[in-house]
Amino acid sequence: MAEVEKKTAKKTEEKKDKKPNAFVRFCKRVVKFVKDCKGEIKKIVWPTPKATFKNTGVVLVTIIVLGLFVFLLDTAFMNLLGLVMDVAQV
């Protein structure tokens, strides 16, 4: 009888050490992820409308300046290529 009790005690100890199944672990990780996301979202500081308008202006000006720069480079290189091609044909 003592041997049977030892075996059952061993089995119950093994069951306690056993990890929960994969679905339960997955669900726990998802719940933890959602809670962490909720906490991070509370930390967000949204910009004021004035700051948003100012930043939008800066972005638009930067795009226009870079666009003009690329246009000028393209025009200069096309003219240079035209000169080289005209020389090559003669």
Any overview of this molecule?
The protein is mainly α. 87% of the residues lie in helices and 0% in strands. The protein has helices at residues 2-17, 22-42, 49-89. The protein is elongated and about 105 Å long. The chain starts with a helix and ends with a helix. The model has no long low-confidence stretch (mean pLDDT 86).
Give a brief outline of the structure.
The chain is mostly helical.
Total number of helices: 3
- The SS-based structural class is mainly alpha
The helix content is: over 70%
Global outline: elongated
Q: Write down the secondary-structure element order.
A: HHH
Percent range for β-strand residues: under 5%
Work out the radius of gyration. 35 Å
Ends distance: 111 Å
Number of strands: 0
Largest sheet: none
Low-pLDDT stretches: none
Give the overall average pLDDT: 86
Layout of helices and strands:
Elements: H1 2-17, H2 22-42, H3 49-89
List keywords for this structure.
membrane; mainly alpha; Protein translocase subunit SecE; translocation; elongated; 90 residues; cell membrane; 3 helices; SecE_bac
